[in-house]
Amino acid sequence: MAIWDQAKECLDVEERGQQQLERLQSMLNRAHGNVPFYRNRFQQAGIDPSQVESINDLRSIPFTGREHFAENYPYGLFAVPLRDVVRIHTAQGSGLKPTVSGYTKQDLQVWRELVARSLAAAGVTSSDILQIDLDPGLANWGRDYKDGAEVIEAGVIPLTILPPEKKLMVLRDYRTSGLVTSPSAALQLMDLIFKTNLNPNALALRTLLLMGEPPSRAVQARLEEQLHVKSWVHYGLSEVPGPAVAFECEERKGLHVSEDHFLAEVIDPATGDVLPEGEPGELVLTTLTTRAFPLIRFRTGDRVRLLPGTCSCGRTLRRMEWFPERTDDMQVIRGVKVHHHHILLILERALGFIPRSYRFFLKQEDLRDYLEVWLKVDEELFSDEVKDMEKLMQKVGAELTQELGAPVRIRFKEEGSFEAQALSYRIEDLR
Length: 431
Prior knowledge:
The chain is an alpha/beta fold. The protein has helices spanning about 15-35, 35-45, 65-70, 105-120, 140-150, 165-175, 185-195, 215-225, 340-350, 385-405; strands spanning about 85-90, 100-105, 130, 155, 180, 205-210, 230-235, 240-250, 255, 260-265, 280-285, 300-305, 320-325, 330-335, 335-340, 360-365, 370-375, 410-415, 425-430. The longest helix is centred in the first third of the chain and has 22 residues, at about 15-35.
């Protein structure tokens, strides 16, 4: 039986607004009182949290960015004593320091409710067997999905890193009916199913839960048609922290934002101005109920637009459309966010110096996305021994794969490969 009240998803607009305002005021006062970072920023901006009397007043508060996580590493953004934190998660940051987020017992209960809510909206029940298949960079989300599935008493096959063939064997032999994965991984699995001459009708699979990156409607349609399943999109963030911040319902007319726990704004990424409803821009999220790790106006870098009107499913939670393009310099590999600056820092640590010439590419092979790094062979990297060069290539590739939580290949290239290199040194998407 569900532990959450499903009526929470159907409050009328006035009730929802009052609920958000009360929770916002409480969170702002708690952050101001317990987190020096926020207190100092409020004071510098001349803001008194007690004077926030409407949702629109939030616009006067400065944004929080990913750079602030590194500046306050590890526990500087926590709003409760460490003795009250029962779980600590780490995620890839944009630099060498990871993003650290904490949960109180109450936070974990809320997150289980959110994930259970999103699973129930996709029709997952206690009769289902849910398999979780995510890359190492999203291991934390695997735990969240396991907890949420257990709330609705579904059978769970927890996240275990296996080769594709073993994943398929588990899917077939364990009679998996629901699969949590990224769109890229789902396409790869579908390709393997047909390469091994396995008829999808021989599988018990009927539900795909796609997260980490927004699939196109064409990709969703292809997966559904060829695997004979129905797919559902979930939106989440490792920094917020976790999956199921927004979820797709049976109407499939946008993703419902869990507004009872998050306040969503859409801003012009260039000016920071809040945009009118329906205009695409950068998603900014403020947590309303998180106790250990509150975030105020966090710039996600995700490009979305908030949809007008209410959904015919009966839920009054606002809906958003999630676009593949980002508003920042990050790229997404199988749901894992990667920044060119982070790659460069890892290279410097692995090599002992910053390479003079390099290029970063997102590529795809056999429907599997990966990062390819080109390094120019110069006097710093050159060796007369081919074996030494190969060992260095393997070492650097392994360190990048481990740190980023996504597959990486290293290539040593000659001078001519860098002539057309853009001065910005950004990640080039060739998928």
